[in-house]
Amino acid sequence: MADPTRDETLSLLRWLLEAGADEAIGEQPINRFARASPLPEPSSRQSATTRSTLPPAFAEASAGKQGGRKISAEAVSLSTAPGAARALAASCTNLAELRTALGNFDGCELKRTAKNTVFADGTPEGRIMLIGEAPGREEDERGLPFVGRAGQLLDKMLGAIGLDRSKVYITNVLNWRPPQNRDPSPEEAAACLPFLHRHIELADHRLMILLGAVSVRHVLGVTDGILRLRGNWQFYQNGQLGHAIPVMPTLHPAYLLRQTAAKRLAWRDLLTISDKVTELGLA
């Protein structure tokens, strides 16, 4: 059998990422049917030595559980980025800590070419969360989501149903702009997703609006086309939240700028969202 091509390999990696396998845990296969030898109980000195040989990010995580210390973002390397990102994100107890953690995190290649980390805009107290795909050129320049042409259209869309940035909270799946607005690699997305999931937990909103197919795929884990999903209520389940969040997938404003005829579909979605906002008392 011929070796797989680069495109075939990347396609397989994307499939694995979407299936949830976003971290390599070993270079050699493990025989899980082999009989394990009993291990002696380690002494306190042995335990300290063992911890010191762990990769820095995971050594910090172990120390954090015992001594209550935060995990250091400076210890993260690209080889351990997804696991370190999960541990770092989980250690944050509020949005301010999460913003700082992202600003210090160096485990995503996208950060190397971006000018700014784009965290969020609007108000967390609005109880309505909007999630887009990734920062564009204007967003990268200013460090805020949805401030370019698509953002201006989004503001008009929100205004049409009585909302604005003082009543909603806006973020993206990715916190750094991909060069030339290209699609992120599976590794780049895997490094960002733990921060997004923790962002949702800490913001703890009552209504979520997903802008575009990329947002839907990474938040809900479904790969159906956005034209099929839009306009239909979904639910985001998270054990940390203790409740389900109603989610409305809709078309990304950038798509509407290219396909103006689709604005009629987006308007229907906005009317449905407006009804839900009233029902939940979020207006």
Question: Could you walk me through the main structural features you see in this protein, from its secondary elements to its overall organization?
Answer:
It is a single chain. This protein has helices spanning 6-18, 44-52, 56-67, 81-90, 95-104, 110-113, 137-142, 149-159, 186-203, 213-220, 226-229, 253-258, 263-279, and strands at 121-122, 128-132, 169-172, 207-211, 234-236, 245-250. It is globular, with a radius of gyration of 21 Å. α4 (81-90) runs parallel beside α9 (186-203). It is an alpha/beta fold and 283 residues long. A hairpin with an 8-residue loop joins β5 and β6. It starts with 5 loop residues before the first helix and ends with a helix. It has a domain at 116-279: Uracil-DNA Glycosylase, subunit E (3-Layer(aba) Sandwich). It is 45% helix and 9% strand. Strands 1-3-2-4-6-5 form a 6-stranded mixed sheet, sandwiched between helices. It has 13 helices and 6 strands. Mean pLDDT is 81; it is low at 29-79. The longest helix has 18 residues, at 186-203.
Summarize the structure.
The protein has helices spanning 6-18, 44-52, 56-67, 81-90, 95-104, 110-113, 137-142, 149-159, 186-203, 213-220, 226-229, 253-258, 263-279, and strands at 121-122, 128-132, 169-172, 207-211, 234-236, 245-250.
What structural class is derived from the secondary structure elements? Answer: alpha/beta
Helix share of residues? 40-55%
Classify the fold: give the CATH topology of one domain.
Answer: Uracil-DNA Glycosylase, subunit E
The CATH homologous superfamily of one domain is called Uracil-DNA glycosylase-like domain
User: How many extended strands?
Assistant: 6
Poorly predicted runs of 5 or more residues: 29-79
> What oligomeric assembly is this protein in?
single chain
Q: Helix-strand pattern, N to C?
A: HHHHHHEEHHEHEHHEEHH
Radius of gyration: 21 Å
State the CATH architecture of one domain.
3-Layer(aba) Sandwich
So what's the overall shape?
globular
Top CATH class of one domain? Alpha Beta
Strand coverage percent: 5-15%
Give the helix tally: 13
Mean pLDDT across the residues is 81
Strand neighbour order, sheet with most strands: 1-3-2-4-6-5
Cα separation of the termini: 60 Å
Q: Strand count, sense and closure of the main sheet?
A: 6 strands, mixed
